[in-house]
Fold this protein.
Amino acid sequence: MVPDNLTDPGSVLVICGPTAIGKTAVAMAVQDALGGREHAQLISADSALIYRGMDIGTAKPTQQERQRYPHALIDIRDPSENYSAADFVADADTEIARAIEAKKKPIVVGGTMMYLKCLLEGIADLPTTDIPLRRELERELAERSAQSLHDELAQQDPEAAGSIHPNNHQRLLRAMAVVRATGRPMSVLWRDNATGTLFERTGLHHESVVMLPLQRNQLHRRIAARFRQMLSMGFLEEVQALMNRGDLTRDMPSMRAVGYRQAWGHLIEEIDETTFIEQGIAATRQLAKRQITWLRRWPDALEVVADTPDQTIQAILKR
RNA sequence: GGCUGGGUGGCAGAGUGGUUAUGCAGCGGACUGCAACUCCGUUAACGCCGGUUCGAUUCCGACCUCAGCCU
């Protein structure tokens, strides 16, 4: 018997956890428990799964799995394109509304904590990154110093400047761009232009299932095994094919994904194979660690500590 | 057996007679439009024994060990 809070058609189920813990398996099991694809809609919350052609290294659900368990928000971008937390919130809101419309329970599954946080807590309505302005700021950064740009930000938006280190160019330039484009501090806009929480935007409640490893070692072992399995499935060939396109560069968000970044370095003979494998596994472990840090502080979570998907499913269904 | 060159923190890799790089990993932290991102802080080493010296990771010697070459 499935508990009410999971079947409640007027609420969103969120399944999150670190990489390699088995979120997909749990999501599929929950869909089955709800009566299949007619009654549930899986929605991916993952900044890497959005990219077409990046399948092996992202541990994307297979074609067969996706036929029985269709996921929204997978393969929606080309690796040359950008995507952001704001894009995700907009897309996810749309998918959730569509699922409700079709009388399906929305199930958001993923490990990109920033996306989930913004989905649940909201994100301000700020101007999108303006490329020409961004270029201009990059030029200024090169001509002046980061410190001088940071000083300027401190004058116009002290609050944002306070939380952005001068060396953090990525965030420094974004905050500057917002000020330049709107004439108002980003920190003020964030309060004034908040779009509201998921409930405020859609009228839907949510329930979070947070998967955490019982033993960190066990997860680490799974990560290492999965990475080697990716290699035998042709991960390097996948990355080589992406490089062969000629239009992708290693500083694009897609190519900076865990594993892809290291594979790129190996394929241009920057690092040898052993180092590539070591670094790839280590980077994945670090990703899991960062995710777990977020998850530990997840508000109102239905927390499930389990080492295997089966344990998690049992724990969810028992509630 | 002989000769030569090496042995530096988990790995890679500089360097110095005293204040002991750096990168990656590890650990802690920040983060509202690149978040599998970006950034900040931090732990940790000089193969072994002896000698020279006020002081040795650095100089000298023996030893152990690795690589290459020679017989």
User: Anything to note?
Assistant: Chain A has a mean pLDDT of 90. Chain A is about 55% helix and 10% strand. Strands of chain A lie at 11-16, 40-45, 71-72, 105-110, 205-212, 301-305.
